[in-house]
Amino acid sequence: MAALKRFLIGRPLKSTELGEQKLTKKKALAILSSDALSSVAYGPEQILLVLITVSTAAFWYSIPIGIGVLILLLALILSYRQIIFAYPHGGGAYVVSKQNLGVYAGLIAGGSLLVDYILTVAVSVSAGTDAITSAFPALHEHTVGIAITFVLLITLLNLRGVTESASILAYPVYLFVAAMLILIGAGLFSIVTGKVTPDLHTPIGTPVAGIGLFLLLRAFASGSSALTGVEAISNAIPNFKDPAPSNAAKTLMAMGGLLALLFSGIVYLAYYFGITPNAEATVVSQIAEHTFGRHLIYYIIQGTTALILILAANTGYSAFPLLAVNLAKDKFIPRMFTMRGDRLGYSNGIIILGLLSIVLIIAFQGQTEHLIPLYAVGVFIPFTLSQTGMMVKWIREKPAGWVPKLIINTTGAVISFTVSIMFFLTKFAQVWTILIFLPLIVYLFHRIKKHYEAVSEQLRLSTCEQAVPIEGNVIILPVSGITHVVEQSLNYAQSLSANQIIAVYIPFERDDEVRFEEKWNKWRPDVRLVTLHSPYRSIIHPLSKFIHTVQRKASESNYQVTVIIPQFIPKKSWHNLLHNQSSIMIRAYLLFRKDVIITTVPYHLKK
Amino acid sequence: MAALKRFLIGRPLKSTELGEQKLTKKKALAILSSDALSSVAYGPEQILLVLITVSTAAFWYSIPIGIGVLILLLALILSYRQIIFAYPHGGGAYVVSKQNLGVYAGLIAGGSLLVDYILTVAVSVSAGTDAITSAFPALHEHTVGIAITFVLLITLLNLRGVTESASILAYPVYLFVAAMLILIGAGLFSIVTGKVTPDLHTPIGTPVAGIGLFLLLRAFASGSSALTGVEAISNAIPNFKDPAPSNAAKTLMAMGGLLALLFSGIVYLAYYFGITPNAEATVVSQIAEHTFGRHLIYYIIQGTTALILILAANTGYSAFPLLAVNLAKDKFIPRMFTMRGDRLGYSNGIIILGLLSIVLIIAFQGQTEHLIPLYAVGVFIPFTLSQTGMMVKWIREKPAGWVPKLIINTTGAVISFTVSIMFFLTKFAQVWTILIFLPLIVYLFHRIKKHYEAVSEQLRLSTCEQAVPIEGNVIILPVSGITHVVEQSLNYAQSLSANQIIAVYIPFERDDEVRFEEKWNKWRPDVRLVTLHSPYRSIIHPLSKFIHTVQRKASESNYQVTVIIPQFIPKKSWHNLLHNQSSIMIRAYLLFRKDVIITTVPYHLKK
Questions:
Q1: Reduced to 3 DSSP states, what percent helix, strand and coil does chain A have, rounded to the nearest 5?
Q2: Minimal CA separation from B377 to chain A, in Å
């Protein structure tokens, strides 16, 4: 087991090696932007899918809508840049909302993002698997298995540590960016050189019957799904090499620039080539076919697109554990999320994220497409909250040059809020569940926090409250016969200089009772023996009643009651079946039901 | 939980109420003979199914073959009667073989029967379910579910206690016997009154081409499957009211008489009416239709037949636990089979039998027909062994009038052996597995016995070997902070007047180490604190290494090492998720890997 673990995730790292596990800007860009960049593969298509409900003549609206998305992107990037500098320890939307809008706003943002990262993993791995099974239909029946394998691989990579996963995952991400840039470059070149007839599209400004504001907003909201993942960097600042905030900010700007370039390129080419979305081929693949034909480069573009969709999951793996640490430090989720694993990653967060996304993939049998709107709305709620939080911050603190900052965040907040509302108005059937589970999650956070607070209150050593003094000890030793084990336990009890030792024997038959008492008095007449006849053949009940009686008496003189339970430790694990192990059951019962100290004297069987 | 258990299986009974749980002859006949009697429903059919492979003209051979089966039945009944008186404490084939032929013969007989009772339950419940789903085809897809429900019901009835199950199950058994007797009576009446034309069958003695000795022996072996279950009474003697052996013997004779009557009646009517077995209707149902037409009484016969097939399983429930007790007393199977449950039945045996037969039903998807030969051979092996054992007994002991007894057992042994061999020769494909698993089971029995013997050897208090004396105590207390829990554990450790108390703190960071040492020295400078810096963030490894060092030193002066582990006991079980419970892991690790005494100081959280 240990050797397998070493092989899979590598040797353990010392806590002092943490510095070497930090990310350079290049690696960080690769693993934190894969989610955002991958949405270029479906974002533009989402806009066209809404417009086509009117007519293909409406496609020219994708240009102004695309510009709208770019403005939103600009607002978000600038705004998250401000968040990075204002909250250099990370935490993003959760921390910003909590500090400026109050704890509940923070929990809504945090809970929403936690769930969203799980959806990110499930949705993007499923989408990538779909791309693969479309190419090789024979694999279709293994969709779920393939998707789960990918999740396990990414989980394993992340358990090896963030730099190691970044080193491996950087290649496909940069390959995708390169492939997209070549595609856009070649496409534009063919337009400029006039190789493409300009009559494939209706000119911008053509009047189209049936277009209304609602439809345009819906198309805009759909296109905005390309912006999911923009917030990831702000959550993952602690993973950056020093100076972390400035490195994170530069990475964010680079990601924003790349995303804007790829997004506008694809939107423009799709418009110019008059691409109509259909079930057989994605918009990107149609542009690629249009530009290059079905040649090698077409397949490279298809392949890197599938790969980046799967790797988009990795963004979730970078951001989820760090967000969880922030929530766990504030005691809203279990403490285990703050523990670093052998390779210094927050392995509990990584493993839980992997497990929950596998559950989602199985539950939806790999068909997670209709989770996309839920996933998008789950991002825009924290977007809105964090921008609003920043607005409040500027208004409250009024630092030098706060007005332009306020304007940026206000723009971001208004657009994000509009997009969120649009999702509810236009895709209510797919997003209503968030109205149920988000309050549930916040309630759970609240309950957990309350429990932790109650515990630490109980544990605190206050100088005024005195611990109950222990004046002496009473030891109870249940015995099942006169054997080596009993002898050893008895010797131990006597070595503890307790005030009283009581051996307890529980016979099922009256004859047995008398016989045992005689034997005992011959063997150890110095130790008091109590027999508890149990006509119903239960051991736990009479023992528990007896302990209760002893305890009541003992507590009068501040005596502590200890129960000594001998336990067999067989040499081979299958031998456990051959022993009744009533000692384990008795121990568990007494520990949870009674307030007694329990001492286990192990007896290691040698054969 | 407890209330549900009370509702399902009734109030617990005192050990002294055991007498009231004993069976009268009438009840014993009902529950112990259901297996044997139910075989009337398929035994005669088995003979015809072999003969039909030659021609329907060969059907007259069923009469001499039937007589052969009756002779075998007579030999078995007389022989088991002798076993009952010779071994009045029950145990049947296992005890007889063990005592006269040696322990391995006993284990083969016992193992064979144990497996056989599991097969009995699975096969008979499946057969009964088949009868029901044939009548109501809509239920067909639920076969497995229905069969499992019946197994659960019978298990529950048996957990309530043997008399209670007998009271309920007696009705259908006697109803079946009555229905069969009416059927046979009415059939004979119609023959005698000449209502049936005598030309439906070939006369006895008609020469038939292609009949050989091998085929006749095969038909005989198949017909002998009607005799499975004959041994059950000899295993279950302890369940009878006093005088148990004579009551058991009388019950056995009654069962033999009834079985002979029903078997010969069905064989004769089948022959006289010229019944040809077919897939649509069983032989019994054809006889019933022939005699009464498809009237009410026909359906009553069909219904009681289905019922008795299911209740045949109950014989397994009576015999399996008692056989298991015998094997467990000899330490060949886990001791838990000797424990009486709340209702004084051997509930572990009952539950295991139920579980294993459910596993078989699921594994074979309710299609257990081809397990029948396996099941029959699994009965005839112990038949042969027990008869041979009795032969050896008579020859060895030569009591008054031993010669006729020897003749009876010799006849039984020879016929049983022939039948066993016939099964191997004619149905090898279905019974070869017994040659694999029977040796495996015997080997397992042997290993279990060896383990128990090794354990009791280690536990025995021999006067020569002295227990290691304990001269003093060293207490190790792992601490995770300065809290109420630590204070309480420390006070307890000090109350035990140990020779040395060492608090152990395991920091992951150097800063933390220094800080904690300062805090500790201010709080409890009198208690020695050891800090073990753990750069790899493991708690168990440094602690385990430290304990090892302390232990080595302590053993030099015969000091005992105790580790005190504080443990949170949350008020609500879901709170367990919120605590790392490293204490449970540490305890388990130390208990199984190290030879230290572990004391758990519970800290019951109040909120």
A1: 70, 5, 20
A2: 30
Query: Residue A279 corresponds to which amino acid?
Result: A
Which amino acid belongs to residue B415? I
Residue ranges of chain A with per-residue pLDDT less than 70: 1-2, 19, 91, 462-468, 580-581, 607
Q: Find the CB nearest A15 among B454, B509, B600.
A: B509
Residues in A closer than 8 angstroms to B454, CB to CB, are 605-607
Please write the tens of the pLDDT for every residue from B379-427: 899 999 999 999 999 999 998 888 999 998 998 899 889 888 888 888 8
A–B CB contacts, 8 A cutoff, strictly below? 171
Please tell me the predicted confidence (pLDDT) of residue A1: 64
Question: Which pLDDT band holds residue B462 (cuts at 50, 70, 90)?
Answer: low
- In order, the DSSP letters of A75-134 are HHHHHHHHHHHHSTT--HHHHHHHHHH-HHHHHHHHHHHHHHHHHHHHHHHHHHHHHHHH
Task: Measure in Å the smallest separation between the Cα of A603 and chain B Cα atoms.
Answer: 8
Is the Cβ pair A484, B458 closer than 8 Å?
Answer: yes
Contact in structure between A244 and A237 (CB atoms under 8 Å): yes
- Residues in B closer than 8 angstroms to A604, CB to CB, are 595
Give the mutation candidate from B20, B537, B559 for the A interface (greatest A CB count, under 10 A): B537
Give DSSP secondary structure letters for B134-200. HH-GGGGGGHHHHHHHHHHHHHHHHHT-HHHHHHHHHHHHHHHHHHHHHHHHHHHHHHHTT-S-GGG
pLDDT-based confidence at residue B466 (cuts at 50, 70, 90):
low
A448:B600 CB<8 A: no
Mean pLDDT of B116-136: 84
CB contact under 8 A, A461 and B472: no
Alpha-carbon dihedral of residues A81, A82, A83, A89, nearest 10 degrees?
80
At position B352, the amino acid (one-letter code) is: I
Partnered with residue B23 across adjacent β-strands are: B240
Chain A residue closest in CA terms to B454:
A607
- Assess whether pLDDT exceeds 70 at residue B91: no
Whether residue B355 is predicted with pLDDT greater than 90 in this model: the reply is yes
Buried b (16+ CB within 10 A) or exposed e, B433-462: ebeeebeebbebbeebbebbeebeebbeee
Contact A496 B491 (CB under 8 A): no
pLDDT number for residue A464: 46
Test mutation, A9, A335, A496, A532, chain B, max B CBs within 10 A: A496
Q: What would the mean pLDDT of B475-484 be, rounded to a whole number?
A: 89
pLDDT digits (tens, 9 = 90+) for A35-76: 888 888 888 888 888 888 888 888 899 999 999 999 989 988
Enumerate the residues of chain B whose CB falls inside 8 A of the CB of residue A508. 15
B545 exposed, middle or buried (CB, 10 Å; 0-12, 13-18, 19+)? exposed
Q: Which residue has the tokens 């090789």?
A: A136
Task: Compute the average pLDDT of residues B473-498.
Answer: 88
Instruction: Check B485 against A575: CB less than 8 A apart.
Output: no
The CB-side HSE value for B180 (13 A sphere, CA atoms) comes to 27
C-alpha A538: how far from its chain's center? 46
**Cross-chain Cβ contact A488/B467 below 8 Å:** yes
| Phi, psi of B601, deg, nearest 5 | -100, 110
Contact B599 A600 (CB under 8 A): yes
Chain B residues touching A494 at Cβ < 8 A: 470
Q: Which of A282-286, A516-520, B41-45, B275-279 has the highest mean pLDDT?
A: A516-520
Threshold 0.95, pTM exceeds: no
Give the one of A560, A579, A607 whose C-beta lies nearest to B454's C-beta. A607
